[in-house]
């Protein structure tokens, strides 16, 4: 058993020492918390998992079963948990390679291992300060604040809010470790699409690149990011994706002169609520009229090949391409690419006293992002909840 660290000094504001750029002073941590969405691991798990995801929205099981077909078609198993196990192992290996003695814990928001249980186990083991790395990289309610809320609510639920401090690394959308695997992926996918076109006697065929990400309600998109900054299209979420797409295109000589666009997928909820558009399948349907013969799909919004990538892109989008006679290839997500794993460890080292990295790289002008979220950043439009790791947090701040 690890020797317990001192109890946090709850009379001290943990955000003292944050500089004007939102950087937090390095600290001593006991462990890393890899936090993710979670997913079912069998047919019997599917509906309980979807109930967790939609808790509080009053959605009947009949509606949930419509979404469940995506999981049913894959044996009721989401790949995300196995991917997180692989990422955890890769992080542990990279930490060991560098001689960094920080254990990696793993907890999910919506399925076992639940964050609540992991926090309790961490405290019982003797850990007193954790540094959270999430598998959601952009700024929006669902990909940042909701994680901070889940941690805040679970710390309160376990009574650990004054005993266990949890901080969070910055959103890393434009960190080289996240972006560069997509650069390699775009290069490889372009080559594969050109091979397909050559085989179809269309060697000079026109190719377009579609950068795909999760759609979110337009209101949430407009509320993303801090309130004291202006963003392209009025949204940090959209602006971050657009900036990343440009950075990737600029780094791939083979993509010079190609048209590209940002498209969205995985829409859910009421059809009367505006969500970000265009939907990827609608965008693909318009390509033949533009004289496009081939498509590269870059899953820019995702860290790993989980269900929304496998279903929405590899199944539905590819079927649309096939029906329209378009050559197509989907680039890989970062997964456990060595640059991605090394980048995550670099993000940890930005925040630690030992093995400190002072350089904070960012491949767009929007970053590097803040260690501590600004007041009102990525607001919860459905009502505020207890949060951690923000300048307006209510848990862990005195």
Automatic annotation (TrEMBL):
Positions with a binding annotation for Fe(2+): 214, 308
Positions that bind Fe-coproporphyrin III: 78, 147
UniProt entry keywords in alphabetical sequence: Cytoplasm, Heme biosynthesis, Iron, Lyase, Metal-binding, Porphyrin biosynthesis
The organism's place on the tree of life at top rank: Bacteria
UniProt pathway: Porphyrin-containing compound metabolism; protoheme biosynthesis
Catalytic activity reported: Fe-coproporphyrin III + 2 H(+) = coproporphyrin III + Fe(2+)
Enzyme Commission code: 4.99.1.9
Family annotation (SUPFAM superfamilies): Chelatase
GO molecular function term, any single one: lyase activity
Subcellular location: Cytoplasm
Pfam families attached to this UniProt entry: Ferrochelatase
Recorded family membership: Belongs to the ferrochelatase family.
NCBIfam families, sorted: PRK00035.2-1
Family annotation (HAMAP family): Ferrochelatase (MF_00323)
Function as written in the Swiss-Prot or TrEMBL entry: Involved in coproporphyrin-dependent heme b biosynthesis. Catalyzes the insertion of ferrous iron into coproporphyrin III to form Fe-coproporphyrin III.
Protein name per its UniProtKB record: Coproporphyrin III ferrochelatase
Organism: Arthrobacter gallicola
Encoding gene per record: cpfC
